[in-house]
Structure formats: C-alpha cells, structure tokens
Design goal:
Jelly Rolls; eight-stranded antiparallel beta sheet; globular
C-alpha cells in the first residue's frame, strides 16, 4: 500500500482558495508530481477558502464534480440549484455533461472553511447536467457517486465514491483496488497508521478507525 501525505505537497490555489492537490491524473494534464487516480477518478484537492473567499463564477463541461464539505459552510451559486447553502457533513455532486454548467462556491463566514473537491470523467458524453446533495450520518458509509444506469440515487459510473463518518473502533473491509483519503481523525489501513491528510492506495482494504468521527473518502470500481 502507498501513502501520500498532504503536508509533503506545496500549497497552491486560485482566487480566494488555497489547496493541496493530491491527485491530478495525466489524463487531465498531471505531470507526475501528484498521483494518478483510479477508474475515471482524476482529481482531488483538499482546499480551504479564505474568510469570505470564493472561486468566482466559472464553467465546466463533460466532468462530474463532487464537493465534500468538511468544515464550515459553502454558499453555492450557478446554473444548477442556485442558492443552495451547504454545511459540514454534506456532499454536493454536479454533472456537467454535454450541457455544461456554471458555478461559484463562496465562503460566507469570517473564518476559513474546508472542502474536498473531486473530479470524475464521465463514461458517456452528452449527458444532461444534473445536481445531487447528500447528508452524511455518523457511523454510516454513504455512497455519493457511481453505480448502474438504472439506479437513480446516485449518478451512474463504474467509479464508486463513498464517504464515511466512522465511530471509534469501527471496521470496514473491501476487496479489490481502492484509494482512500482521510479528512478527519486517524485509524489503521492494512496495518499502517493514517491521519487527516493522508491519501492511500492499495488492494483489499482493511480499515479500523481509532478516533470517533474519523472521516474518509473511499474510491473503488465496479
């Protein structure tokens, strides 16, 4: 199993956002200083917004964008679900498709917030734009992206994203390839201790949470 630590990477950013980019796949211009993704997962940035910072309005097409709110709040503006207010323990999923969408994400508060942004390439071009919002519950592993086309709860893809807020000593096992990012707390993965800001990649996941409220993002494939 491999581990990439956020603290080992340079802090970058744009507009009112500072971020560490842990995954920038070669398929979207990565040059090897970060990791490639798994399946159609191609990008992961751990970002915080400056007080009252924002991304500024911009557009996307043919990309699926998953935003995991870790701390604070985010106000969402744009062509999909304009005016949504997001808080910690929520996940926003936007599919640009061929139709495309524009958005601006804003920190409405006088202190920094924290958001993990993930990009996944669509498996079919020309899909209509769509929007979904998920609430996370402690002790649950919530699938927020991927699955078969006939399912409506999540956007379809063979790349699966799950977000979990775990209880102390909770264990999760999965077979096959995985990537896992820790966004709060600490635990043990396949015998190695991991902490907030650690990205791991391996085969056949064995995870045990050390701390109550350990939050993880798991990427796998079907």
């Amino acid at each position: 199993m491999k581990i990439l630590k956020k603290e080992s990477l340079a802090l970058g950013g744009f507009a009112g956002i500072k971020e560490h980019r842990l995954v920038v796949d070669k398929r979207i211009g990565g040059d090897g200083d970060t990791w490639d993704g798994l399946g159609n997962f191609v990008y992961l940035a751990d970002a915080y917004y400056d007080p009252y910072g924002q991304s500024n309005m911009h557009s996307h097409s043919e990309i699926d964008i998953i935003s995991v709110i870790v701390e604070g709040r985010v106000n969402h503006e744009g062509s999909l679900q304009h005016g949504e207010s997001l808080v910690a323990k929520q996940v926003q999923v936007q599919r640009a498709g061929g139709e495309g969408f524009s958005h601006n994400e804003i920190n409405p508060d006088a202190q920094k917030n924290r958001m993990i942004q993930i990009w996944v390439l669509p498996e079919k071009s020309g899909e209509p734009a769509s929007y979904k919002l998920y609430d996370l519950a402690k002790g649950d592993l919530t699938q927020v992206y991927g699955g078969l086309e006939e399912e409506s709860k999540t956007l379809s893809s063979h790349t699966i994203l799950e977000v979990g807020i775990l209880t102390a000593k909770e264990k999760i096992s999965k077979t096959g390839e995985f990537m896992l990012y820790v966004t709060q707390g600490s635990g043990k993965i396949n015998g190695s201790v991991v902490n907030d800001g650690d990205l791991t990649q391996g085969v056949d996941l064995e995870l045990e949470a050390f701390s109550a409220g350990m939050q993880v993002i798991i990427v796998s494939r079907i």
